[in-house]
């Protein structure tokens, strides 16, 4: 459904899905490899899709430094953490030691965030389902609104609201959220107040069957342009399919690194998918 009108790309994806890639499919992928990232593929525009969190972190950091070198003012936002329901004596306890470092264990709210007007970000919280403002939605910051009508950040503890353009219905106001979650080592309940967004020039893409895509919710997203990593760091069957199928067309795809051995196997990646495709093909013949 995402690749409407692109028969070549759809055939490639179907072959990849069931483990039946042919030489012509690899030739197509090779043709999209290591092209000069210009136009919509430059570092600050096209989404990068990686299999590991470390690759995502490294790329987002690289883009931040790219903007910093251009003289862009970048604001560092730090979450407000506290214990609200302590089950142990917590005198002299360093909150940093008992607050989980995994964003999936802190309600999707990050500990630190560096933002500026123009930064590409992703929602990590269902803000308004009726408007499509859900976990995984990507947009650009158009305005930073500081507390008490200040024009700039005055204190390290300042957490602003932001307006984000998600590409539909104009810019939406996103305010800080407060989330409670278990503290580490049975220290009770912790609370974090923070903007429910993360930087998103790069995303983790994890296979459906692994079902760990909660980090960046790439599984449900579709983009016009993306640079996809298909190299040696792919670690799960189906990752390449999920990453490639986020892109609408071959023209919107560049491949950063390609390890063909990661895309082949003796058995289909997904037997259920293979059976369903056979069922649909047989059904179409009947009509």
Automatic annotation (TrEMBL):
Pfam families: Pif1_2B_dom
Keyword DNA repair: yes
Keyword list, A-Z: ATP-binding, DNA damage, DNA repair, DNA-binding, Helicase, Hydrolase, Isomerase, Membrane, Nucleotide-binding, Transmembrane, Transmembrane helix
DNA helicase Pif1-like 2B domain mapped to chain residues: 106-143
TM annotation in the entry: 194-215
Listed GO MF terms: helicase activity
DNA repair among keywords: yes
Alphabetized Gene3D superfamilies for the sequence: P-loop containing nucleotide triphosphate hydrolases
Protein name, entry field: ATP-dependent DNA helicase PIF1
Organism: Trichonephila clavata (Joro spider)
């Amino acid at each position: 459904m995402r690749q409407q009108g692109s028969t070549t790309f759809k055939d490639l994806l179907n072959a990849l899905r069931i483990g039946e890639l042919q030489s012509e499919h690899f030739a197509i992928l090779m043709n999209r490899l290591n092209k000069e990232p210009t136009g919509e593929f430059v570092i600050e525009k096209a989404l990068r899709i990686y299999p590991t969190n470390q690759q995502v972190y490294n790329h987002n950091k690289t883009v931040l430094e790219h903007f910093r070198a251009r003289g862009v003012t970048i604001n560092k936002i730090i979450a407000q953490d506290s214990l609200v329901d302590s089950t142990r004596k917590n005198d002299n306890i360093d909150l940093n030691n008992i607050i989980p470092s995994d964003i999936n264990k802190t309600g999707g709210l990050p500990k630190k965030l560096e933002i500026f007007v123009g930064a590409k970000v992703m929602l990590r919280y269902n803000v308004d389902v009726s408007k499509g403002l859900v976990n995984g939605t990507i947009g650009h910051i158009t305005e930073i609104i500081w507390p008490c009508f200040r024009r700039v950040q005055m204190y390290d503890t300042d957490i602003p609201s932001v307006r984000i353009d998600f590409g539909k219905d104009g810019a939406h106001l996103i305010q800080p959220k407060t989330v409670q979650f278990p503290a580490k080592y049975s220290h009770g309940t912790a609370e974090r107040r923070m903007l429910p967004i993360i930087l998103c020039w790069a995303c983790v893409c994890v296979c459906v069957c692994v079902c760990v895509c909660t980090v960046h919710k790439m599984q449900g997203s579709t983009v016009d342009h993306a640079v996809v990593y298909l190299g040696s760091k792919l670690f799960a069957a189906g990752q390449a399919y999920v990453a490639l199928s986020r892109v609408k067309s071959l023209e919107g795809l560049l491949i950063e690194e390609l390890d063909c051995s990661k895309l082949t196997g003796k058995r289909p990646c997904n037997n259920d998918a293979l059976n369903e495709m056979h069922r649909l093909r047989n059904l179409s013949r009947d009509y």
